[in-house]
């Protein structure tokens, strides 16, 4: 396993590409039957990370459950059984979280490389007259940075590394009920 999460969800990623495909959002776990099921279709807009450790697919589809309670939006990742709370109003929403991932383990001669990935989901909701979410459109941004105390310099420019750190991967997306 190239990446290993340093969170309770250590099995989330088995390849570098899989890491990007995971939302990695876990402030609190939620039931799989809470909220409305949405299909998300995302398209790569930009990446400054390169095609190594943070290689991103051009297109990405996944499922989430959304639950709106007044100004709180609960975003539940169906694949990873993780959720986080964000904010929602009539004209915008925002959900974000951060997790640390081990890229290379420490050894007798190296402190290893661990990166922090900040996940941000922002955009515009479409609500019906009763305030129910009928669509979300917006941006997904994964920002990668080296965690203090680690050394990721050997991975900068390496074939299976990063083009640069910090870096980010940006998607545009639309989510509609299934």
Describe the structure.
3% of the residues lie in helices and 51% in strands. The chain has one helix at 16-20, and strands spanning 4-5, 36-47, 59-69, 72-77, 82-88, 93-104, 113-127, 133-146, 167-177. It has an eight-stranded antiparallel barrel with strand order 2-3-4-5-6-7-8-9. The longest helix has 5 residues, at 16-20. The model is unreliable at 1-31 (pLDDT under 50).
Overall morphology: elongated
Number of structural domains: 1
Question: How large is the count of helical segments?
Answer: 1
Output mean pLDDT: 83
Q: What share of the residues lie within helices?
A: under 10%
Chain-wise SSE layout:
Blueprint: E1 4-5, H1 16-20, E2 36-47, E3 59-69, E4 72-77, E5 82-88, E6 93-104, E7 113-127, E8 133-146, E9 167-177
Give me a quick take on this structure.
This protein is mainly β and 178 residues long.
Defining key terms:
8-stranded antiparallel barrel; mainly beta; 178 residues; 3% helix; elongated
């Amino acid at each position: 396993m190239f990446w290993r999460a340093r969170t309770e969800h250590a099995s989330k990623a088995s390849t570098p590409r899989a890491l990007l495909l995971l939302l990695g959002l876990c402030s609190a776990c939620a039931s799989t039957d809470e909220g409305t099921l949405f299909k998300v279709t995302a398209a790569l807009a930009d990446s400054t990370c390169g095609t190594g450790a943070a290689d991103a697919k051009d297109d990405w589809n996944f499922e989430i459950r959304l639950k709106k309670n007044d100004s709180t939006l609960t975003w539940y990742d169906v694949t990873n059984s993780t959720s986080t709370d964000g904010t929602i109003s009539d004209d915008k929403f925002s959900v974000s979280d951060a997790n640390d991932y081990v890229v290379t383990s420490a050894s007798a001669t190296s402190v290893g490389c661990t990166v922090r990935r900040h996940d941000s989901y922002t955009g515009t909701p479409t609500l019906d007259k009763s305030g129910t979410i009928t669509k979300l459109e917006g941006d997904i941004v994964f920002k990668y940075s080296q965690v203090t105390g680690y050394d990721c310099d050997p991975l900068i420019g390496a074939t299976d590394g990063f083009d640069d750190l910090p870096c980010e991967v940006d998607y545009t997306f639309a989510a509609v009920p299934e």
